[in-house]
Amino acid sequence: MLNLVLHVFDNTVRFYRLLISPFDDGEYAESRFFSTATPVLPVDPIEQSKRLAAYQAVDNHVKPEHRIIGIGSGSTVPYVVERIVQQGAAVNKGRVFIPTGFQSKQLIVEAGLSLGDVDQYPTIDVTLDGADEVDHALNCVKGGGACHLREKVLAEAAQTFILVADHRKNVQYLGTNFAQGVPIEVVPFAYAKVLQNLHHILGSPKATLRMAIKKAGPVVSDNGNFIIDAPFGREHMLDPYVIMAQIKMLTGVVEVGLFCKMAKAAYFGNADGSVTVRWQDGKVEQISPNQTAAGTPV
Ligand SMILES: O=C[C@H](O)[C@H](O)[C@H](O)COP(=O)(O)O
């Protein structure tokens, strides 16, 4: 990985850290955990798209009166935290931030924000989270990072649930680009039985146990469970609620990474610098590059 770090001082002695880094998909680059005292200015176009979406969503939905804020997981969410920090210490002092897993807990702590948990705050003002794919009706796939159990709890707890993503995630039907399948969290001892049911009863013959990359054996979630990835055909994704409910009924399944119509809006950063917003009522809004929040002060 090439990391070129430039420290630029202008005549007001402001400090920028510019990072050229070909982040791999799904890799939560350490560089994105810097506090916004030294904001990371992404030059990778996909990173730029994630940042556009995150900044716009924060500006539109994280208001000074919001006190309890849910922070999702993934590689788009660090930009959410970055923008929230830019709202200033005064407003953030009175806020509590609820993480959806280990990564977002680290983000909150390293940004100097106050940490809480959903068992202390079962009602959340607004939760912002990433997605693996979002369809035209705001159904989405989540769990590419195995965080979807906690993410769904925080989505349900939120009065407003907002998705942020780059343009690759904006699809008509789930399964278009994200082909690895629906993430399913299962208790470890039940995984073989759940796999059998997925293969032979629910029609996902290619469902597999997710294996770890830098560890021998399966991925283990933050909750100590295994993850199955189950691809389903287009016929199931026309209205994914049905298959979501069927999977959830399998004994041993803890949670399914299909979030059906839970979000109020989904923000997608586009390659041309614009932002597309899909709203719950079906409206689609285009925010042109010169009207987006990215690059502007809060
Ligand atoms: O389990 C992980 C989460 O559902 C993420 O929010 C999802 O995988 C999207 O992550 P990213 O923003 O890195 O694409």
From TrEMBL:
Associated pathway: Carbohydrate degradation; pentose phosphate pathway; D-ribose 5-phosphate from D-ribulose 5-phosphate (non-oxidative stage): step 1/1
Molecular function terms, GO-annotated: ribose-5-phosphate isomerase activity
Record's catalysed reaction(s): aldehydo-D-ribose 5-phosphate = D-ribulose 5-phosphate
Enzyme Commission code: 5.3.1.6
Top-level taxon in the UniProt lineage: Eukaryota
Keyword annotations of the record: Isomerase
GO CC terms of this entry: cytoplasm
Pfam families cross-referenced by the UniProt entry: Rib_5-P_isom_A
Enzyme class: isomerase
GO BP terms: D-ribose metabolic process; pentose-phosphate shunt, non-oxidative branch
PANTHER family given in the database record: RIBOSE-5-PHOSPHATE ISOMERASE (PTHR11934)
Entry's family note: Belongs to the ribose 5-phosphate isomerase family.
Official protein name in the record: Ribose-5-phosphate isomerase
Source organism of this protein record: Gymnopilus dilepis
High-level lineage: Eukaryota, Fungi, Dikarya, Basidiomycota, Agaricomycotina
